[in-house]
Known about the structure:
The protein is an alpha+beta fold. It starts with a strand and ends in a 5-residue tail after the last strand. Helices cover 38% and strands 19% of the residues. The longest helix has 30 residues. Helix 4 crosses helix 9. The chain has 3 domains: 137 residues, no CATH class; 140 residues, no CATH class; 197 residues, no CATH class. Strand 14 and strand 15 form a beta hairpin. Strands 14, 15, 18, 19, 20 and 21 form a 6-stranded mixed sheet that branches.
Amino acid sequence: MKLLIEEEEYPVDLLESIFDDLKFYKQNGLKGTVKTVGYYHSYKKKELVLMLPKVFMENGVETVFKGTKDELYNSLEQTSIKHDSKYQWLRELSIHFYNSLVEYNNRWNQTGLISPSRTFELNTNLGEDNYSYLDIVLSIVNFYKKNKNHILYRHIEQVTNNASRPKWEKTIRKSLPLMANSKTPIYFNIRNKRKVVNTEEELITYFFSILNHLNNQHNLNLKIDKSYKLFKDDAFINLCKDEYGLRKLKKIKYRYFNDTLKRMYQLCELYFSNNDYASSKKEKEEFLCTNNYNIIFEDMIDKLFTDKIAEDENIQNLKKNKDGKIIDHIYEDKSLIDRSNIFFIGDSKYYKSDNTVGQNSKYKQITYAKNIIQYNIDLWNTKGEFHNENIRYRDDETEGYNITPNFFIYGHIEDPNDFENPQIIQKTPKPEVSYHWSDRLFDRDTLFVHQYSINFLFVLKSYTAYNSYKLKSFRDDVKKKFRSGFIDYFNNAEVCGFTFYQCSLQPSEFPNYIRNRFKDFNGKSIITQDNRLIIAIHQNDDSLNQYLLDFEALENFQ
Length: 558
């Protein structure tokens, strides 16, 4: 197996030696740049290639594995990854990557982003063509789905045969019955006059043990027959060590003539063998890849942050701005300053692991936020309401605008073996600020953007392997984290530059009080949903100090 990284350059002669055509890379002189992410198998050239997302590149020289891309290219040469714990990351990556493409197609049908080729089954002829861990997992799963009824029928048939022509004298002498209410004895282990040897059960036990292991390892959601005593945990690990399972298989090889059982034997033999070689029925290329993995990454983040995003027509319409721009992520959460709600607006960036957001992306994000604000103000001006009854963007008395939180999020990989921890990291100590007037916090043009990174491998796995309960738990946690990032910022006057005060007058006095001081209060004040008049005084602004007798210091936002 060869490992390449998206958007990295490799010698053209190297790429020509593994690919059958140019659709997977772009040639520039003697170099070629890999332009796809995915899985490729050439039967003609007997090469298997995994094209990893560019997030696996840490910088211009090193990968996240602390070696160069050239060292990574041949790192799996003559190495099996099926049982070696060092390559657990590659086993998981293969499965979760494949599942991510399937999940994307399920969520957004017929997008044309993915270039699929049919999954295939392998014949065994050890010593010829390379095959991958993904190949063998898919082959086993496909075989089980096609033949599970046949396997169950053979098992029932065998059990039935064992109960035919019972030898009651031996049964009564050798076993204890269960006494029914009518005092009738019921025997479970019936001795036969005709001895029937179940030569199939041992093979089926091995097959279901492998299937059970893969099912637990990769959350394949398969229902496995419980009739057999399976090898699990340490027993299964021992079966995989030093080709022990393969040796056990070879002892029973002669027993099978049925085509289904012979195929089952071949798949077990492939799994237990410690070298990645097999023959295939096809003589052409096999691939599952995309040139637009950034869009799939955006959908992965969207599924993590937003419930039922693909089915929510209102949210979908809200994401599509009138100027043609499409917002990556938007969700409703509690406002920073009161009990009303506000939209949190996010943009996911598909970068290499060490990259940060550039200036152009920051400008785009500010535009997204302004479009959402304008959308809600248009609703307020035409219908007298915002997007819903919980949303509140502007206070008409002060004409102050609620703070709109924005964030960037992009993937990183710290540990190639870690698929379980989100590792959400705030990349800068304080958010980026965009404004027309630096001292007007509640102006519609004052906007804040935080930057976060998240474990790409966690995103990849959770996209397909997490159930709705786990996803909801993660959403709740991450939304609290994003909100608290802004809350902590505004609660620290030295960092944010603002000190907050709350008016001590009665709410009924607010309209006249503001009207007489509107020029001074414009953009610096807001009346909250729970009828509190709040002013934000910038550290370089003393124009509101004359009014502080009517205000008291505001305790921290919650």
